[in-house]
Design a protein that fits this description.
Length: about 325
């Protein structure tokens, strides 16, 4: 991983990696650099970018997405139905957990992959585009896991009497419509979730960077773990507001599409109209803002608990500073 390695110059090298670089500073392999914190020589459970790191990040995604969606999704009528018929909603956590497993772990993977391709200087200059590309790639694959659960969930929630459990609904849908029943909503799901996730990750990354630069009165390395997690929640909530706005029209379409047989995206758009696709936006902003803030808080808390590397916000590489100063 070569993303922003210059910010880790201050950290002492590991044994066996003390060969000096051209500028006289210790030369560390890129992954070693990012497996260490700029704030302290903290011991970590694994190396940044390793298979163990990506797997544990995926576990963090399971906990953050599974727990938060299960807690926030059942609002108003759905909540009342869950209280009366709790078996109708078994399997919700499993579906969102599968998506979280893919989304967070794959985001870390693609961020490493694309930054390696760009190199440290271009990775810094194009970091927003890097975040957007990595998150879009991760969500594309995560939605393939989520689509069947989303289709079953909507069918159970919106068609009373159709089925009471996931185990009952899934075979019934397959008999009626075949495999397409579970994936007919994947295209609008991509339209909803990919912009949502691109905003969720890129806005979060840049918001955290801005908070530490312009709002927090002390550097990140001088903040306690709880203070850092507080900043994480605030950054996540702000990102969630923008997520709700960009994904709301597609969310309205997905709900109708999975509820009714024989419908198409264009047909639903014509029927809903401009007002219909934006109906309920304020409620969605409140829900998604809280949801996203909690997801990032839980995800970062898992990293802290498991002693995973948590690199600070990126800083301009020294080599790029020198180039800019010469111009």
């Amino acid at each position: 991983m070569r993303l922003f390695p210059e910010i880790f110059r201050k950290v002492a090298p590991r044994a066996g990696s003390s060969t000096p670089s051209k500028d006289g500073s210790p030369a560390l392999p890129p992954r070693d650099l990012l497996s260490l914190s700029a704030a302290s020589e903290e011991e970590y459970s694994c190396e940044y970018g390793s298979s163990a790191y990506l797997l544990l990040c995926s576990l963090g995604g399971v906990l953050s997405c599974g727990a938060t969606h299960t807690a926030v999704v059942p609002l108003d009528v759905v909540k009342c139905r869950m209280q009366v018929e709790p078996r109708r909603y078994q399997g919700l956590m499993q579906g969102y957990s599968m998506q979280g497993f893919g989304k967070f772990g794959l985001y870390e993977y693609f961020k490493i992959l694309y930054s390696d391709l760009l190199g440290p200087e271009q990775a810094y200059l194009w970091r927003t585009s890097l975040y957007l590309a990595a998150s879009a790639s991760a969500e594309f694959f995560a939605d393939i896991a989520l689509a069947p659960m989303e289709a079953v969930k909507v069918r159970i929630q919106t068609q009373r009497g159709y089925a009471k459990t996931l185990r009952e609904a899934a075979p019934k849908m397959y008999i009626e419509e075949g495999l397409w029943a579970f994936y007919k909503g994947v295209y609008p799901l991509w339209l909803r979730q990919i912009p949502y996730t691109m905003m969720k990750f890129s806005c979060f990354e840049r918001t955290i960077e801005a908070l530490y630069k312009y709002v927090i009165p002390k550097p990140r390395d001088q903040c306690s773990k709880m203070e850092q997690l507080g900043v994480t929640f605030v950054g996540g909530y702000i990102a969630g507001i923008f997520c709700a706005i960009v994904s709301h029209p597609a969310d309205s379409v997905v709900s109708v599409l999975n509820q009714e047989r024989g419908t198409t995206v264009l047909g639903v758009l014509r029927r809903l109209g401009m007002y219909g696709i934006w109906k309920g936006l304020f409620t969605r902003i409140l829900m998604i803002g809280t949801l996203t803030g909690l997801q990032w808080f839980i995800y970062d808390s898992v990293k802290v608990y498991l002693k995973l590397p948590r690199p600070p916000p990126p800083e301009m590489p020294e080599s790029l500073k020198k180039k800019l100063s010469q111009n």
